[in-house]
Write a structure and sequence with these properties.
The chain has 91 residues and is mainly α. The protein has a domain of 51 residues. The protein has two helices and two strands. A hairpin with an 8-residue loop joins strand 1 and strand 2.
Length: 91
């Protein structure tokens, strides 16, 4: 009776997971549903885009959308009293 060669045994299938690394998309590979956050200097050869899955609303992934869309901040002082204060310097 012959023994089976261990190298000939079928190997278990390993799941292949696509890694979404930021900076993996170029102008030529950038798709409609990919994050369009620019990475690097557009004038250099190493310029890329994030390339991760973009959110449902907008051109950026969740991480870059948090950076791009900041809530508007209120200015410290404004209105008539601030205008009067600033004009007193010149009168």
């Amino acid at each position: 009776m012959r023994r089976a060669d261990p190298a000939a045994q079928p190997q278990p299938l390993r799941a292949v997971v696509a890694r979404e690394e930021p900076g993996s998309a170029t102008v030529l590979t950038l798709g409609a549903h990919m994050c369009k956050w620019p990475i690097g200097d557009p004038a250099t050869d190493g310029f890329t885009f994030c390339g991760r899955q973009a959110g449902e609303e907008g051109p950026y992934c969740v991480e870059h959308a948090r950076i791009a869309y900041q809530p508007q901040q209120k200015k410290g002082r404004s209105g008539p009293s601030e205008l009067a204060r600033s004009l007193r310097r010149y009168i």
